[in-house]
C-alpha cells in the first residue's frame, strides 16, 4: 500500500500490531505485584487470624450455615450447625451495637462461640423473648483460652412486625423520638411499608440504648450485650437455685412472688430507688408494673424498657410517670404496705428537676 509522503509512517514506527509488546493488563499487574497491605487494618488482621487458625486471640473461622461456600474464603466449605444454632454475632455487629464498657467478664466474646436456642422465655405484646446459650465448643483451642467466659446464657428479645403486635399505642411513647436519617423519619411519618420496617428496628434500638444508659448509671437492669436489627441480646436473670444447667428457669416476676413483711419493705425500697434513678436521668419507665420487675431472690431487676419516655420532651411524660406510681403503689398497698402514689410522684419529680 502506498502512502502520500506527508502520511508515510516513519521508519521508527513500522512494527506491526502483533509485534508490539503487549501492554500489561490490570489483572497482570495485580497478579505480579505483592498483596497490598494496610497498616492497622482490623479487617486484614481478622482475615489472617481466620486463615492461620491462630487461637491466641480467640479467633476461629466464621463459617455460615447451610453448606454454602465462604464469600471471603471460597476454598472453605461451610459447616452446617443444624437447627436453632448459629455462629456468635458479637463481632458481626457494629461497634456501637455492643454493650457499654466495661463489658462484664461473663460475656462470651470469642468468634468461635456458637449460639444455641434453648426455648421461649416469654411472649409479649410487641416482642418474644428466647433463651440462648452462647458457648465455645469444648474441643476447640479457644475454649481453653476463654476460661470462665466460655459459656453464658442470654435472653434474646425479638421484636415482631407491626402487623403482628398487640400493642397499638406507640405514638404515646414515641412522641419525642426522632431518627437520624430524614428519609427514615419521612417514612415513619407517612406510615409506609418501609416506615413500618424502620419502626420495628427503632423499638429494638431504643431499648438497647436505654438499657445501656441505665446500666452504666447503676440502675438494676439486665446488661445489654448487643443489638442486631430487631433482636436485642441481654443478660439472662435466672431464678436462684434453678438447678438446671441445660435450660435454667428465669427469675419470677414480682407479681408472682409472695414476700413476707420484711422482704416486702425491702422490695419497696428497691422499687423507689430504681424509679428515682430513672427520674434523675430524666426518664420514666412508662409501663412499670409488677410484671415488668423480676425478683432475683431478695434483689429486684427492672425489665422491658423500650417505651422509656423523656420527662421533659414527651408531653405525656408526667402522666406516664404518675401511672407507674399508681400501678406500683397499688400492688404494695394490697399486700399491707402503706405507700401513696401522689407522695411518690412528688418525690420523683423533685429528683427529676
TrEMBL record:
Catalyzed reactions: L-seryl-[protein] + ATP = O-phospho-L-seryl-[protein] + ADP + H(+); L-threonyl-[protein] + ATP = O-phospho-L-threonyl-[protein] + ADP + H(+)
Highest taxon above the source species: Bacteria
Keyword Transferase included in the entry's annotation: yes
GO molecular function: ATP binding; metal ion binding; protein serine kinase activity; protein serine/threonine kinase activity
Keywords, in A-Z order: ATP-binding, Kinase, Magnesium, Metal-binding, Nucleotide-binding, Serine/threonine-protein kinase, Transferase
A Pfam short name: RIO1
Record bears the keyword ATP-binding: yes
E.C. number: 2.7.11.1
Domain RIO kinase, first and last residues per copy: 91-350
The protein's enzyme class: transferase
Compositionally biased intervals (Basic and acidic residues): 17-32, 42-59
Region ranges (Disordered): 1-66
Family note: Belongs to the protein kinase superfamily. RIO-type Ser/Thr kinase family.
Protein name: non-specific serine/threonine protein kinase
Organism: Luteimicrobium xylanilyticum
